[in-house]
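Entry:
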Amino acid sequence: MDILLVASAFNSLSQRVYAELSDLGHRVDVVLAAQGADPVRAAVRELRPELVIAPMLRTALPEEVWREHTCLIVHPGPPGDRGPSSLDWAIADGAATWGVTVLQAEAAMDAGAIWAAEPFPVAPVGKSDLYRNEASDAAVTAVLTAVRRYAEGSYKPQPQTDDSISVVWRDAFRQERRRIDWERDDTETVLRKLRGADSQPGVLDELLGREVFLHGGHPEDRLRGRPGALLATRAGAVCRATRDGAVWIPELRPRKNSGDPAPFRRPAASVLASYQPSLRLAASPLPLELSPDRRTWTDIRYRQRGDVGFLAFSFPGGAMSTDQCRRLLAAYESALARRTSVLVLGGARDFFSNGIHLNVIEAAADPAEESWANLNAMDDLVEAVLRTTDRLVVAALAGNAAAGGAMLALAADEVWCRTGVVLNPHYRRMGLYGSEFWTYTLPRRVGADTAHRLTTEALPVSATTAQRIGLVDRLLPTGAQDFAAEVERMAADVAAAPNITRRIAEKAAARRSDEKARPLAKYRQVELARMHAVFFDPEAPYHALRSAFVRKVPGGSVRPLALPAGDVR
């Protein structure tokens, strides 16, 4: 069918729906509705779709569109649930299970007939993690079911007036409900409030006399202090005392009207340092290999099971700053000092990596210099993986990967991927040529023609397609909570296989042959020359695109997938 996706942003769910519908042979177009109804009307007139689907929509569809076309709305709540803050309420109320409903658009919000619904378990994680994983899995299953039912033509959607459906209206979850009372709220209450707003909108609070939004929350089992007090810092996060414990907060976002020139999310310690340069919080370092009974936060961990090492990392939003890249490289080098035959890279769930940290770059005194430093730190890490010849390296993607983060995965010997993952192995939408040795690793895996297509079309790729074209070696059809255990089992099998020594020797020989044909240093030199020219050109599209992305400047077009001006190939 000809399907039009209408979305407020081409976010993770919209990308996944786009990729999976395309995999099934549907002709899918996308229009962004962030600038109002006119782009949506224009897209419908031009494209004349057979079906309209809204995977993520913050505003109502124009009446003339839903009256004249079948329009399916993806609502992140179970049948009968209505309102704009469904997942927020699920987390706040401690729901064990929740659901996604695909319903037909009509005048009343979320009141249309139901085409499909799918339940999912509510994991004890932040809202954005839950949305990208359990909720996304359920949403895609429900969307594909609804599309199939629509195509068959005989299915009658279930009206919400049916006696089996209990309608519950839930108001918008506003900041008054999110506000933390540091004197009275216990740690679990604080964590629930933080997790319910970890990506958007954050929890409004005050620190050092400034209004800021708190993003992310993780428990701390040992540090204690006066409720609300700042106790320590670790890896850019800050630890804050509750009445019966403490929590780690990785990121802060200054309020837009606060006068801060960088009113977007970035590492909490750096935001506070910009407010009070004399602030000195105690550092609270952790060993790389942490006892499993510790209930604390760190963004990089190592553990070992027999001949397999697991280097786990989890950075907010998947972005990796200069500091994060350097710390991960140090951890990688430490892991190489351990005797293993297999080393697995990747977190237990959610993002693998999205490459350089655009928010930190945008906030820097000199964004061009910070872009350059961040990219070189990322290249150092990828090169270290590529030059590892004494063991097999596996990239285990529990969640999405894009740009340099996707190329970090391709530096490994094998890429294992959860079936719900979306890959964006390109840079062009940020006006960049790219680095991280992609000109070596991408053609090596998929061939020169496919590499050119992926990097110039710059479209999301489903896990299924990624395996078909050679980007991914193994698909893991597991839920998000089961992924880590399945990776551990598979890695143990690889390490125990009788051919492991031969495989490592063949890998080392192939690396020597490739190095002789063209040194890695040459790939890096050519890529960095292209990137340097962009970073230090104030007129390059990259700077405006980066600023718009970081500051969430609304965009909308009949052709939202069109590429930025300028040929960066």
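The longest strand covers residues 97-104.
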